[in-house]
Every structure is written in structure tokens, then in C-alpha cells.
Amino acid sequence: MRKHQELSLEQIIEQVRVDESPSDDFCLYGKEDGELALARSYWVSNYPDVVEDRDVYPTEVAEQNLQLVYYGEQLIDVLSVALEEKPDASHQDLVEALNYYHQHDNFMPFND
């Protein structure tokens, strides 16, 4: 995933879906943390650095007062598990899986 750009969650999901081995070396940042929304835009950037036990966010993230929304590694894992369980999952299904993981720290079961 290319970093240092703003993308809608729908665009991010689509990039992950079409990429056979997506890189998880990114984080999503937004104006607010909490529930993800398909049409909302997120800033894709680097992981924060840890300096003296404190997170130091990328300059563009700090300048825009953005919040860390999702780590790339978690996002890729959640989407991969959801797509394994339900290969024809809609974008909205995947957003629900991401929000479920964010709230419960567990993968959302897809009941057919």
C-alpha cells in the first residue's frame, strides 16, 4: 500500500483485495478514532516510532492532528480472515469485520 496519501476505506479495502500479498507496513489515521466508515477518508502513513517509551507519530499526522485508527498488520489480518471465511464478502461486510475486531479484539464470525 502506498503511503502518504488520503484514501477512502473503500479504496483501501479494494487495494487489499486485489493485492495477492499486501504489505502491512502502514497505519491508518483519521480525524477521529472509533467506528470505521466506508466512505470516510483516512491518511495512510508510517507506523509511529517509539522514542523513550512514547509514540512519535509521522510529521504529517501530527500536523493534521490525526488519530491512529488501525495498524496495517491488524487491518490486513482482519480482512484476510474475513475473506477466507466469506470470499464474496461485500465492502460493508468487511467494514463490519474491522469494526467488530476493533471493539472485541477478536475476529467476527460470519454465519452463512
Could you explain how this protein is built, in words?
- With 112 residues, the chain is of the alpha+beta class.
- It has 4 helices and 6 strands.
- The strands form 2 sheets. Strands 1-3-2-6 form a 4-stranded antiparallel sheet.
- It is globular and about 45 Å long.
- The chain starts with a strand and ends in an 8-residue tail after the last helix.
- 26% of the residues are buried.
- The mean pLDDT is 91.
Radius of gyration: 14 Å
Number of helices: 4
Shape: globular
Low-confidence stretches: none
Q: Please give the domain count.
A: 1
Q: How does the SSE layout of this entry go?
A:
Blueprint: E1 5-8, H1 9-18, E2 27-30, E3 41-45, E4 49-51, E5 54-56, H2 59-63, E6 67-71, H3 72-85, H4 91-104
Antiparallel strand pairs: 1-3, 2-3, 2-6, 4-5
Helix pairs in contact: 3-4
Keywords:
4-stranded antiparallel β-sheet, DUF7716 domain-containing protein, DUF7716, two-stranded antiparallel sheet, globular, 112 residues
What is the structure about, briefly put?
The chain is an alpha+beta fold.
